[in-house]
Write a structure and sequence with these properties.
The protein is of the alpha/beta class. It folds into two domains: 131 residues, HUPs (Rossmann fold); 131 residues, HUPs (Rossmann fold, 3-Layer(aba) Sandwich), CATH 3.40.50.620. Helices cover 41% and strands 19% of the residues. It has eight helices and ten strands. Strands 3-2-1-4-5-10-9-6-7-8 form a ten-stranded mixed β-sheet, sandwiched between helices. It is elongated, with a radius of gyration of 20 Å. This is Universal stress protein. InterPro entries: Rossmann-like_a/b/a_fold, Universal_stress_UspA, UspA.
Length: 290
């Protein structure tokens, strides 16, 4: 199968970053499991560039690249031990961490990063590389925090409106690939929908019905596209959208969200709900451009 195009289920190849740390290795193995479930290849990337790069001596540069190659060899060996049939390639880049991943991945690829690392490639600490990649990627990015063990058999898709349908379809495809069920979670905050407390008493039921109907309209085409997929719709009233999604993540193998990127943010940015879920979720989180 051509690795440059998505498979028949619409899910593309997987690209994972590593810095050699234990947490990064866990993320690489999670990425390998995802690639295996999709029947797609895995590429593992290590970027050696950092703020000191311009001051390296020739000997230091050689040592850095040699260590980078050893890290990739160890990652490839770890993947082969668990997924011997999975096609794996590696990329050693002279660029920085986020830039190396973003330059390697094609729009149809899924990028996988750990939530923190040991410096260098990493500081895959959320707030640095992980957030920059999620904010700038042209395709899906999955940040691996906790990995549920055993698997829950559920994929959660966070949906607010039709702009999230791309994320919803990605979640459905992932659920199908893993033989999981899809739980669609839509969270609304009551006081955002009313103009006064007097209206609150009269309008709460009408607003709840309206939110449920809007969710059904968004989910309907996905139900039609994936008729064999078990889909649950959960429309929640909550004081905290992020808090409700973090709670939902405790019973999921993956949470999928559309990236809300503030139109006037300086540099790469994500909406506050996406940012909070990436920091606090109890399972890996996939972020897709809206």
């Amino acid at each position: 199968m051509d690795a440059t195009v998505p498979s028949e289920d619409g899910l593309g190849p997987v690209v994972a970053g590593t810095d050699g740390s234990g947490q990064a290795t866990e993320a690489v193995l999670w990425a390998a499991a995802e690639a295996s479930a999709r029947g797609r290849p895995l590429t593992v990337v290590h970027g050696v560039g950092d703020e000191r790069q311009g001051y390296w001596t020739a000997e230091e540069a050689v040592a850095v690249f040699e260590e980078g190659r050893r890290l990739l060899d160890r990652a490839e060996t770890a993947v082969a031990e668990h997924f011997p049939q999975l096609p794996v390639s590696t990329v050693l880049s002279k660029g920085g961490s986020a830039e190396s991943l973003l330059e390697t991945a094609q729009p149809q690829d899924t990028l996988v990063v750990g939530s923190r690392g040991r410096g260098g490639f990493a500081s895959l600490m959320l707030g640095s590389v992980g957030l920059r990649v999620a904010a700038r990627s042209r395709g899906p990015v999955i940040v691996v925090r906790e990995v549920p063990a055993p698997r829950t058999g559920a994929v959660v898709a966070a949906v607010r409106d039709d702009g999230d349908r791309g994320a919803l379809r990605f979640a459905a495809r992932t659920a199908v690939a893993h033989g999981a069920q899809l739980r669609v979670v839509s969270v609304w905050k009551f006081l955002e929908n009313v103009g006064s407390m007097a209206a609150a008493v009269d309008d709460v039921s009408a607003i709840a019905r309206s939110e449920a109907e809007a969710t059904r309209r968004t989910v309907g085409p996905v139900r039609d596209e994936f008729p064999g997929l078990a889909v649950e719709e959960d429309v929640l009233r909550s004081g905290s959208v992020a808090g409700s999604l973090v709670e939902a993540s405790s019973a999921a193998d993956l949470v999928v969200m559309g990236a809300r990127r503030p139109a006037h943010a300086l540099g790469a940015g994500l909406g506050r709900v996406t940012h909070a879920v990436l920091h606090h979720a109890h399972c890996p989180v996939a972020v897709l451009p809206r």
